[in-house]
What does this fold into?
Amino acid sequence: MSIHLGHTHAHDHACPSLLSAAQAQRYGRVLWWALALNAAMFVLEAAAGIAAGSQALLADAIDFAGDAFNYAVSLAVLGATAVWRARAALFKAASMLLFGVYVLVRTAWAAYSGTLPHAATMGVVGMLALATNLAVAWMLYRYREGDANMRSVWLCSRNDAIGNVAVMLAAAGVFGTRHGWPDWIVAGGMALLALQAGWAVWRQARRELRAHAAAAPCTGH
It folds into this structure.
């Protein structure tokens, strides 16, 4: 899926603005909720993925853990300057890229081993994960056009919801074929989506840092 970060958006300006105090407070509350929900789903989905032998569930669980970490970073830089928010976005983009590489390697090993996942567990946990991510994505929707740091938070939630639908499709595929290839395909696709999103956030954060360096009067914004 392509991710457009066009130059016409406000977050590409040389001097990205901070949220107002009231907006920052609301955004902070949303991030705390997102952090708590993602941390809880990581524990649940990791346990279910190991029990079910599902690489797609494990990939989604690791993604939940990464998102919880990303939300914590976003909270830490919520009131920081634009340059520090862009640096935080670079750090988060790197974590998304590392996640993608890790899942690709693990999925390749699972395909080589030929493990058959438990389809029913995949389907039930996938539905619960989807409900969680839709709730988080809905809470974050109004902030999707912010700077690279806010953009990365939105992309994480959006990608997770897409991944959950894919996990449920993989569960149906495993159930119907009695083979693990639907699970491996979905896990690999989730890894590629993470790589694409991570690269998009990385490029935007680099643009913001270059713009900040070229506009010295804006360094305090």
